TrEMBL record:
CDD domains: SmpB
Record-given protein name: SsrA-binding protein
Cited Gene3D superfamilies: 2.40.280.10
Organism: Neolewinella agarilytica
UniProt GO BP: trans-translation; trans-translation-dependent protein tagging
Similarity comment: family membership: Belongs to the SmpB family.
Keywords attached to this entry: Cytoplasm, RNA-binding
InterPro entries according to UniProt: SmpB (IPR023620), SsrA-bd_prot (IPR000037), SsrA-bd_prot_CS (IPR020081)
Any one GO CC term of the record: cytosol
NCBIfam families linked to this entry: PRK05422.1 (NF003843), smpB (TIGR00086)
Amino acid sequence: MAKPKNIEFVNRKAKYEYHFLETVEAGIMLTGTEIKSIRNGHVNLRDAYCAFQGDELWCRSIFIGEYKQGNVHNHEERRARKLLLKRQELNKWQKKVKEKGFTIVPYRLYLNERGLVKLEIALVQGKKVHDKRESIKAKDNKRALDRALKSL
C-alpha cells in the first residue's frame, strides 16, 4: 500500500481571531468525491464553523471544491458534514458552548498516517480588538528579533 502524501490545510486566520482553549481531533463523514478533491488540494477552512444539531456536532461551510472527474453524483461544495467524536467529548463541549462566548472552530484538516481525513477542531473564545493589536505587535517584535539575530 502506498504511503499517503502529506496533505494539510490550516485555518491561519483562526489564531488571529480567537483565543484557543482546547483542541481535539475528530473524524469527518465524507463522500468519495470529497476525499478525491481533498487529495487534489481543493479545500478552504476560512469561513467554517461547527454547531450542535441535537446531540451531534456538524461542521458547516467548509469549502471542498468539486472533483473535476466527478459525474452527476458529485458533492455540494459547502454542505454540512457530520463530525465523529466520542459521546463523552461531545457532551463536554456541548456544555461549554452553551456558556457565553465559546464557540467551536475547525483549525486543521489533514490526512493521518492511515490515509484517513481528520479535522482538528478547537474550543475558542473571540479576541477583543486590543488583543488582536497585541498579537500583531508580538509578531512584529519576533520578526525584528529574528532579523537582528540573522544579521549577526
